[in-house]
Amino acid sequence: MHALILGAAGMIGRRLTKALVASGTVGDHPLDALTLIDVVQPDAPAGCAGTVRTEAADLTAPGAADTAIAGRPGIVFHLAAVVSGEAEANLELGYRVNLDGTRLLLDAIRRAHAADGYRPKVVFTSSLAVFGPPLPPVIGDDWIVTPASSYGTQKAMGELLLADYSRRGFLDGISLRLPTICVRPGKPNKAVSGFFSGIIREPLAGRPAILPVPDTVRHWFASPSAATGFLLHAAGLDFGRLGLRRSLTLPGVSATVAEEIEALRKVGGDKAVALIRRDPDDAVARIIETWPEAFATDRARALGFTADASFDAIVAEHVAEFQAGA
Amino acid sequence: MHALILGAAGMIGRRLTKALVASGTVGDHPLDALTLIDVVQPDAPAGCAGTVRTEAADLTAPGAADTAIAGRPGIVFHLAAVVSGEAEANLELGYRVNLDGTRLLLDAIRRAHAADGYRPKVVFTSSLAVFGPPLPPVIGDDWIVTPASSYGTQKAMGELLLADYSRRGFLDGISLRLPTICVRPGKPNKAVSGFFSGIIREPLAGRPAILPVPDTVRHWFASPSAATGFLLHAAGLDFGRLGLRRSLTLPGVSATVAEEIEALRKVGGDKAVALIRRDPDDAVARIIETWPEAFATDRARALGFTADASFDAIVAEHVAEFQAGA
Ligand SMILES: NC(=O)c1ccc[n+]([C@@H]2O[C@H](COP(=O)([O-])OP(=O)(O)OC[C@H]3O[C@@H](n4cnc5c(N)ncnc54)[C@H](O)[C@@H]3O)[C@@H](O)[C@H]2O)c1
Ligand SMILES: NC(=O)c1ccc[n+]([C@@H]2O[C@H](COP(=O)([O-])OP(=O)(O)OC[C@H]3O[C@@H](n4cnc5c(N)ncnc54)[C@H](O)[C@@H]3O)[C@@H](O)[C@H]2O)c1
Q: Ranges for the NAD-dependent epimerase/dehydratase domain (chains A, B) (predicted)?
């Protein structure tokens, strides 16, 4: 099977590429070909048994979506996106990439379907940002979508379009609402959620980290490898089991900041914990207050999606990767 | 206040025009000006105290949305839409009018907001078609939106955009999910829901009507005057009370086909009821089975929206109008 990754140069895209190449399969099929596209030139992976094509392209440029699917990939991982903070700061960019980009992709597939019966699997990465306040402590699979950000709005609109095009048979799609990825590797970024990873990653590297919210704040997390695991699991899933409801909130670990800190202490000791500096930021706290704390992900679990075992396991994965990289 | 009605030549648009002109007010303000736009030339109403402008224009034509709001109406009633059956039959038309048309309107307002601080009230008519199976017998205000039609998808996407633009302060919007309007006047049309009105309207006019579903089918209704009432009530409402949740499912009357028939019998007798011919259509029955039966509309009721008293009252309104018209 030919797999296409849009947004292949991103954090999850790079890991997914690696995982696909390592397994040599996608779902139940051998991986014959891999197309990697991103506005940033993606690296060609080493050791892929199938044909690899990499391309630097903006999904929203005229014809780019048609070119992307020209090889008729059997599965499309659509990860290309402008992240939350950027979509809020730059409204037109966010709607262009996150909404129009998704629509251009799905419409290119629709036209290909009309032309030659093409009907790929499409795995779209959505987000918890589709949910907004007021929220119950544990959110069920039937809970209403009311985004509190433009990013969440764009993801929710993409989910709806994907579901409609799936219903009409142009494609076979799923929207995976990923938990907040933690521990996110790399430099601290401007994402509001950045501190959730920062208070683990930075102290373990001997650097200070700022904590802008109270220790009681609770949120929903998955490790980078759990995120890759969700995408790989989706590749093998029969989406017919989803019915009309093509969006899934995925299992995660619900943890408070205090629990994060205790997990850090176990591996880094008091020395690491001492590197966390409490610097309350009311603006950040007010945003985080509106975020989900936990989900009952019955549907996703019934479909075989599994989460990290605990926040300790999330930290252990990070430590192992950090040591392997160092 | 200057009011703009987009879709003014439609069934609800014509009634809303009449009601606004009759009251001479919109919300708490005198009606100074009325702009009526539709792809079909709207009739200019008689007796309007304010300035009236009518225009035949396609909302999706380049510049049409900017022209529509050039007079900076303080309130925009956005009713222009391609209906359910047409949006399903003609995918591109449905997305163009129902999604792009709405987005063009909201983006024109966003640009005007940036240019001169314009920030109108926007009342968008959404639909129960945003809900899809599986549904509980009574649907609460927190229930998930999973449309089972392209029309419902387009309405749900419009709701999301309107909520985001409201949150960002470009406009002050509300999406009203109207119940199925019954008794819909005029000729039988191809809407799947047409028989709900047809089995009342046609027999009362001495004509036969076809009933394609079992008598046990239950659905959610509002009279044409209740629909107009919802729009007028919204005009006077402080949308700040909605918070992030800019969409409201409106109160209605939950009635079975059997209850409809008994209401018909009360005014038209057995003679009228005898004009209903049962002609089961499995395709229609399968679609209708996925439709909502009843809602708990706590939020809308708390905001002062009120429904018809009963299905008998709905029929009585139709009879009165029919007699006035005849
Ligand atoms: N990381 C998380 O916590 C998280 C949580 C929920 C959902 N997601 C979603 O998962 C996906 C991947 O996330 P990530 O953490 O790898 O993000 P990332 O920012 O690292 O990767 C996104 C990639 O998309 C690319 N891209 C942006 N605009 C593009 C365009 N116009 N054309 C082509 N490529 C473009 C970027 O260059 C980037 O490489 C995104 O859709 C994101 O919204 C991530
Ligand atoms: N009638 C119902 O049962 C019901 C239920 C729920 C929601 N709604 C919604 O309420 C609104 C009004 O419904 P209605 O029953 O009066 O429908 P209608 O079809 O009678 O009126 C819609 C009007 O929109 C106009 N229109 C279509 N495309 C246009 C375009 N591109 N530019 C400008 N005008 C355009 C049509 O000419 C028509 O006059 C619609 O948005 C509809 O989706 C109706």
A: 3-210
